[in-house]
Amino acid sequence: MRKKKKKSIMAGLWKFFFRSILVLIFFSVSQVLVFKTINPPGTVNMIWERLLAQLNQTDYIKPQYSWQDLVKISPHLQQAVLASEDQRFLTHSGFDFEEIKIVIENMVENHQFRGASTISMQAARSLFLPSSRSLFRKAAEAWYTILIEGFWDKQRIFEVYLNTVDWGTHLVGAQAGAQGYFSCDANQLTKPQAALMAAILPSPHKWSAKNPSAYIRNRQQRILKQMPAMPLL
User: Fold this and answer.
1) 33 and 52 share a domain?
2) pLDDT tens column, 134-146
3) This prediction's pTM
4) What are the pLDDT digits (tens) for 195-231?
5) Is residue 105 located within the same domain as residue 125?
6) I need a labelling partner for 202 at 20 to 30 A (CA). Which of 16, 22, 148, 224 fits?
7) 109 and 14, same domain (yes or no)
8) How many domains does the chain have?
9) Which has the closest alpha carbon to 175: 68, 74, 70, 101?
């Protein structure tokens, strides 16, 4: 009797597990299909931060966020971001294995670590996931990256990325970043301004496009040199 009861419990747990997986797959695929054509009113992280503020009983400051179609975002910014964040964006399928190889070699030989996130991975993370750090989040990021690469074209992925990426404290997306740093719209950014905004993207809460350090100025100059070789989507 005990063995039968134990088997019954295990069978029930396995059924629950597989049903949960199917629900998560259906939910995530539905999300990706919806946002293939509908512009998101916000991001999961914006909701997450609001919930945390309520739970911790702290003041919540709503981030600046204003969707802009890709044609209304400066081509200078588009080229600067590609130069800075993902120069092989149009040729990889979401994961840049060449860059991952370089990162691993640097870790082994020089004991230096840097990220290898593509624009596709960052778009998946920015739109669909909270900003927590965990193995589950990394797995979810990989899953959403596969989905958006499968259901969206590169232009849509880039458009979502530019509109949802964290560009600094309370600044979400290109429009908020342009207004916050340079008091202009995203389509009015000059080449130097665009390169500065791209230069701070690896760590937008540590660096500033308004008061750039010498290091950020050097990154800006390097990006400016690379921009002409970048495509326009």
Assistant:
1) no
2) 888 899 999 999 9
3) 0.89
4) 999 999 989 999 999 999 999 999 999 999 999 999 9
5) yes
6) 148
7) no
8) 2
9) 68
Contacts 24+ apart (CB under 8 A), 219-227: 219/84, 220/192, 220/195, 220/196, 221/195, 223/80, 223/83, 223/84, 223/195, 223/198, 223/199, 224/80, 224/191, 224/192, 224/195, 226/83, 226/87, 227/76, 227/79, 227/80, 227/83, 227/191, 227/194, 227/195
State the DSSP string of 73-90: S-HHHHHHHHHHH-TTTT
Q: What does 179-204 look like in DSSP terms, one character per residue?
A: HHHHSS-GGG--HHHHHHHHHTTTST
Q: Would you put residue 3 in left (φ > 0), alpha (ψ -120 to 50) or beta?
A: alpha
CA distances from 67 to 15, 70, 71, 175 (A): 41, 9, 12, 7
pLDDT reported for residue 26: 95
Taking the C-alpha atoms of 217, 218, 219 and 223 in order, what is their torsion angle to the nearest 10 degrees?
A: 100
Residue with tokens 């039968």: 4
Structural domain including 98 reads 39-229
